[in-house]
Amino acid sequence: MEKIKLVIADDMEEIRIHLAEEIAAHSDDIVVVGQAATGHEAFIMVERLLPSVVLMDIQMETRTSGITAIGKIHERYPGVKCIALTIHEDEEFIFQAYLAGAVDYIIKTSSIEKIVKSIHDVIDNKLLVRPEVAKKLIDGYQRVYEKQSRLKETFQVMLLINTTEYEILKMVYEGFTYKDIASKRFVEETTIRSQVNHILKKFGKKRMKDVVAQLRELNIFDE
Question: What is the pLDDT of residue 130?
Fold first, then answer.
């Protein structure tokens, strides 16, 4: 019987040792070939040992270092299966782990039987959700997540916009020309263009049509 080579990555040594001992006691075909204390160490270990599976703690040297390591391993060694280890069933972290390339996740307080079963399941491709369905779900979540991130960033910029800039921005959004806006506000067109430049700097854009496209995508001014 071919052995399943396992790497355990966790920043707490006692957890790594406990998992290694318990897995060895509950499975004849899983052998722990390495233990890592950081995401970086885990990646180096994968390069050197090419394990079958990595149990990867999500939060080690940073809150998401395990997720970063999963992404790097998935990109460089797609045949290595990564299972995310997490303390809490935090939906945000779990989805990020899946987006990075994890094939399953395990709560650290799970029974050793459940952990061993997860390792066997990912090796046998016995996932609860078929890979193609999981990918669609993950892709859908990624689109929502990215839109939420852009929405948050846009609102942060909007908080920096003063009342005059807001009114000008809304008029540009509605299709008014700079000349129209200047006429409605009883100022010179050069004044409007100057204020537009301030708006562009706050958004980090070079053209107002890019700002408008960003606002339109997120329905900022739509009722």
Answer: 47
From 110, 107, 220, 122, select the one nearest 174 (Cα to Cα): 220
CA distance 51 to 84: 15
Give the CATH fold of the 138-217 domain: Rossmann fold (3.40.50)
Mean residue pLDDT across the chain: 88
For the chain, give every residue range classified as CATH 3.40.50.2300: 4-128, 138-217
Asked if 171 and 135 count as a contact pair (C-beta separation under 8 A), the reply is no
Per-residue CA distances from 115 to 17, 53, 141 (Å): 15, 12, 26
The reported pTM is 0.61
- Single-letter code of the amino acid located at 76: R
Give tens-digit pLDDT for 72-88.
Answer: 999 999 999 999 998 87
- Total residue length of the chain: 223
